[in-house]
Amino acid sequence: MSDYLPILVFALLAAALPLATILIARALQSRKPNPAKLEPYECGIEATTFALDTRFSVRYFLIAVLFVVFDVETIFLFPWAVMFNRLGLFGLIEMLIFLTILVIGYFYVWKRKALDWA
Amino acid sequence: MKVSASDWLLLSPELFLTAAGLLILSISAFFDKAKEEFLAFLTLLFVGVAIGLVAFLSGYGGRGAPIFAGMFIVDNFAIFFKLLMLVSIALTVLASIQFVGRAPYPAGDYYALLLFTGVGMLFMVSGNNLVSIYVALELMALSSYILAGYFKLEIKSTEAALKYFVLGAFSSGVLLYGLSLVYGIAGRMGLPDLAKLFESQAKSNLLLVGILLILAGLLFKIAAVPFHVWTPDVYEGSPTPVTAFFSVGPKLAAYAILARIFYVGFPKFHADWGLIIALVSAATMVFGNVAALLQTNVKRMLAYSSIAHAGYALMGVLGFRTEFGLWGILVYLLAYTFMNFGVFALVVFLETKGYAAESVADFNGLARRNMTAAVVMLVFLLSLAGIPPTAGFIGKYYLFTSAMKAGYAWLAVLAVLMSALSLFYYFRIAAAMFFSEAEGAPLKSSYALTAAVLICAAATVIVGVAPQPFVEMLRACVIKAP
Amino acid sequence: MTGAQAVPGALLTGAAGWLFVIFAVLALGMAIAVVVARNPIHSALFLLSSFLLVACIFILQQAEFVGAVQILVYAGGIMVLFLFVIMLVHQRGVRERLTFQHQWDVALLFVLAFLLPFLYVLWTERFPDLPQNLDAFRTVRGKIAGNTQAVAWVLYRDYLLPFEVASVFLLVAMIGAVVLGKRSAEKVD
């Protein structure tokens, strides 16, 4: 457990740094509120639309789902890689089958034009 | 760990089916809509080969011992279920060819998903370890969610997929929580190992909570009361061949694994889970039948009817350590698969002819327009109601006897009463077919669908008229309780 | 269970025990905040903190691999999905409404109905002898390696087939995303 002591120290430092900058800025800043400062910046022209009015295409979500699938795949690669030497040829073939199945999926996604943006 | 060649051979149907699914998937993008029927025939061929492999294994000497480090087991019980599930997939393909073919969706993906659902189901009934069972179950469930929403331009299909997915994911969470509690207490996951460990230990309440959660998760897949609420909406909204498949395929897998987990893994607690299953069974058959009586939509009525049948089937799990054991449920499921699929296949038939199959009136005068369809439908309805000489009667006979032998006479009496009640709503369809007038030209069915329906009808009649050889064969397929 | 000389929580003594209490209480607090927050973006951020705290608990149990999975998949991947969903459905007006908090009284009843028996069971349970030494989770062939190595050793040997089934599962997830998520106009060739 004591291996994690440096990480804990690091985490505390990482938390302290942004907190400190925010607090110091707050202490030093001068406050002159003004409605124009809260407007979204559009080259000085008044904004005509509201940010939340635009809806995003479902294709973003499709990409996100595919990302998660491949993310999970990497998780399986990781322990295999650290034990590669001892799992030997058996492990290699096993992982090749695993990857082949997913590459077929990638091929399918490609052929169905799910990655095309036009 | 040692993996011998015989281990691979024993799981060859699953491995073959996986490869088949991958092949269909990767070539499906190259087929345009007009040539997709070829993919359906290819799928049928692959399922046929898998059936052949399972049939070969039924005579193979090496079966019955745990394989792959205890992850799986291929015993007679698993072989029976695998055969039945593969047949249900083949029937689904037959019923889908026209239905999916004319819809604006690529059919190749559909058949691939059907095969992957099959892979999940086949691995599941062979599962001998909580992890292998869970992974296989999830594969089956995820593929089914997608199949339910396959007709995504139809709002009801999307609704079905969404409801199925949200409730299914929740029930998987409950199941997984139960599995993790059991693992946390036992520190092992092989079913026989669990039984061995619990034999020497005092009862633990936390363990019982874990077992209860596992039971709840599995009862959801079976659609038993109070975990049935998803069924009518999903059955109504899904593409009808998919509904037909849901009402048999995944349910078979769920019954099988319920029996295996509780018979092999938790025999010590049979008094506890036995009582719960008996109560659930009673509630399910009462609720399913009463609700079916009140329906006007045919698909929903059949959904409630299959809930009621889940209630009957659960009686077959109660014969723990009696001479019947799981015999009753095996005979019953053999009958149920064919008769229930057959009923839904006829709804598919009406839908391909432009009827929405929304109301009983769609069956009006079917006898005049297609006598064969009407007679066959009558056979299925009689069988569902449990009237001799149909398979449904034989199934129910063995089921009720097994409940009596297990000391649940009250449950058997209730089931007989409920079967009588079910006659009313089955009769409504029969009456519409034969006694109502309807104009219109004769309806002709496609060859594939006709084949599916006739296979179901033949099985229903043959098992009903000459049950002896089947029943005897199934006697050797039960799991022996330790 | 009989012969339970093991005290609940014996796995985590001293400073580690206190850390566990801190992480657990914070994780629960964040989880409650996810449900009661009015702004879905805030809910998502609370969920992220909850995921990270759970990862800390895993690491505390010396299950480093699961901890890493928790961060990579949940805090990384699943969070992205949540943010995308919020982006897709989040329109003006949604933020001000209490979308999912209509039935909180019924929900509370169900939570209590589930929680109280559970607490009772946990309270009265006498836990069996858990592996007292956590080294069991990082041993390969009797030699101490790391948790990830131990997971790999079991996963790629004993759990060979479930592992391959998992890849079919991921494949089906991909098919599902394409079949259901792709716009139908492009669907038909």
How would you characterize this protein structure?
Chain A has 118 residues and is mainly α. Chain A has a single domain, classed as NADH:ubiquinone/plastoquinone oxidoreductase, chain 3 (Methane Monooxygenase Hydroxylase, Chain G, domain 1), CATH 1.20.58. Helices cover 69% and strands 0% of the residues of chain A. Chain A is built from 4 helices and no strands. Chain B is mainly alpha-helical and 482 residues long. Chain B has 2 domains: 265 residues; 214 residues, no CATH class. In chain B, a hairpin with a 4-residue loop joins strand 1 and strand 2. The two termini of chain B are 26 Å apart. Chain C has 189 residues and is an all-alpha fold. Chain C has a domain of 132 residues: NADH-ubiquinone/plastoquinone oxidoreductase chain 6, subunit NuoJ (Four Helix Bundle (Hemerythrin (Met), subunit A), Up-down Bundle), CATH 1.20.120.1200. A two-stranded antiparallel ribbon of chain C has the order 1-2. In chain C, helix 1 runs antiparallel to helix 2. The N terminus and C terminus of chain C are likely disordered. Classes of the chains: A mainly alpha (118), B mainly alpha (482), C mainly alpha (189). The interface between B and C is large, with 48 and 35 residues.
In short:
The complex is a heterotrimer of chains A (118), B (482) and C (189). By secondary structure, chain A is mostly helical. Chain A contains 4 helices and no strands.
CATH topology of chain A: Methane Monooxygenase Hydroxylase, Chain G, domain 1
- Total strand count of chain A, please? 0
Strand content range of chain B: under 5%
Range of helix content of chain A: 55-70%
Q: Based on DSSP secondary structure assignment, what is the total number of beta strands of chain B?
A: 2
Please state the CA-atom Rg of chain B, rounded to the nearest Å.
21 Å
Q: Name the biggest interface.
A: A-C, 49 and 50 residues
Low-confidence runs of chain B: none
Q: What composes the largest sheet of chain B?
A: 2 strands, antiparallel
